[in-house]
Amino acid sequence: MTERILRIGTRDSKLALWQAKKVQDLLTIKGFYSDLIPVKSEGDLDLVTPLYAMGVQGVFTKTLDAYLLSNKIDIAVHSMKDVPTQLAQGIQQAAVLERANYKDLFVYKENRIYKSYFTSNIDERKTLQGIVATGSVRRKAQLLHRFPGLTIENLRGNVQTRMKKLHDNHWDAAIFAAAGLERIGERPENAVEIDWMLPAPAQGAIMVVCKTEDKDCFEKITLLNHQETAACVKIERDFLKTLMGGCSTPISALAEIKDTHMVFKGNILSLDGKEMLEIEKRVSLSNMDDLGVSAANELLQNGAMKIVEDIRKSL
Predict the structure, then answer these.
(1) Distance in angstroms (rounded) separating the CA atoms of residues 62 and 9
(2) What is the C-alpha end-to-end distance of the chain, expressed in Å?
(3) Among positive and negative, which fits the CA dihedral 162, 164, 169, 170?
(4) Which of 18, 172, 225, 308 is deepest in the core (most CB within 10 A)?
(5) Whole-angstrom distance, CA of residue 100 vs CA of residue 184
(6) Residue ranges of the Porphobilinogen deaminase C-terminal domain (predicted)?
(7) Phi, psi torsion values for 38, nearest 5 degrees
(8) Which residue, 282, 277, 283, is CA-closest to 298?
(9) Is 137 helix (H, G, I), strand (E, B) or coil?
(10) Under a CB-based contact definition with an 8 Å cutoff, are residues 144 and 131 in contact?
(11) Is 168 a catalytic residue?
C-alpha cells in the first residue's frame, strides 16, 4: 500500500510558510510524507480594513477551514492566536507545537523614543505623546491605558509589509509579535520586548488541525503535540471564550507552569484603554483544568460584563 502523503494547508505569507515547513519537518522526522499547499486567506487579501471591522472571527482561518472540509488539504497550520475558540464543525485540534517567545515587541525608530516609552515615571507616561502603529485592539488598549496621550495608527499586512509601512510613515514605532519576527530571522536591532504587556491568548503557539473524521491523520499529527504548551494555551483560550471575546476584544492572557504550579495572568480593557480589570491566579497542576474559566468568571462578577457589552455596542 502506498504511504499517504499529507497535504499541509497554510497561508502564503513568509511566516505562515515557515510555520508549515516546521510542521512538515517534524512529520518527516516521524517518518511521514507531506506536501505544502499555500492558500491566500481573506485576512491577507484586505490589508486596509481594521481587523475589528472585518467580521473578525476566523478571518485568517476560515479559508483553510473550507479547503480542509472540501478535502483539498488534510491538515491546516495556524498561528494559534488567530484561531477562534470554537472550531468549525467537522474540524478538530490535532496538535499544538512547543511555544516560542510569547511577548510583544516594540520596534522603534530612534533611541530617544525607546527611552521615553519605557520610562518608569508615571507622570511622564501620562503626558507622553507620539504615534504608535498596530492593528491589534489588545495592543492598542494596553498602550492607551499606560500612555493615554498616544495616537494609534492602524497597521495591517504581513511582517514585511508592516515593517515597510513603519519605515515609510511618520510613526514613532510599531508593535509586532516577537515570535513572528524571530521565526523568520527578521527581528531588528531597534526592538525591545514589552515586559508589561500581556500577550494575546495562545500567542507564540502553532496549532495543527484536521478533519474530525480523519482518524489516521489525527493519530499522526497528535504525535507532534507539546503537552505543556497545550495545557497552557487551553487555559488562556478558556479565559477568552468565557469572557466571550475574540480579535475585536482587548483580552490578554498568559498561563505558565512554574515548578508544581500553574500561574495565570489575564486582563480585559475597554477599547479606549481607560478601564482595565485584571486577575492573577496560582494553583497546583492538579487543580488547573478549570483555571481559565474560573478566572474569567471572577472578572465577569467584578464588572467585566459591562466592558464586554460596551464593546459590542461600539462595533
Answers:
(1) 12
(2) 54
(3) positive
(4) 172
(5) 12
(6) 231-301
(7) -75, 140
(8) 277
(9) helix
(10) no
(11) no
Question: Which candidate in 65, 74, 82, 104 is catalytic?
Answer: 82
List, in order of start, the domains of the chain with CATH numbers: 5-97+205-225 (3.40.190.10), 104-193 (3.40.190.10), 239-314 (3.30.160.40)
Task: Record the cell numbers describing residue 313, joined without a space.
Answer: 455596542
Distance of CA 297 to the CA centre of its chain: 22
B/e letters for 279-304, b = 16+ CB within 10 Å, e = fewer, are: bebebeeeebeebbebbbeebbeeeb
Cell digits for 125?
Answer: 507616561
Reported pTM: 0.91
pLDDT digit string (tens) for the chain, length 315 residues: 468 999 999 999 999 999 999 999 999 999 999 999 999 765 443 443 343 433 344 556 888 999 999 999 999 999 999 899 999 999 999 999 999 999 999 999 998 888 888 888 888 898 999 999 999 999 999 999 999 999 999 998 888 899 999 999 999 999 999 999 999 999 999 999 999 999 999 999 999 999 999 999 999 999 999 999 999 999 999 999 999 866 678 999 999 999 999 999 999 999 999 999 999 999 999 999 999 999 999 999 999 999 999 988 886
Give CA–CA dist 171/272, Å, rounded. 20
Which amino acid, 127? T
Rounded Cα–Cα distance for residues 21 and 33 (Å): 12
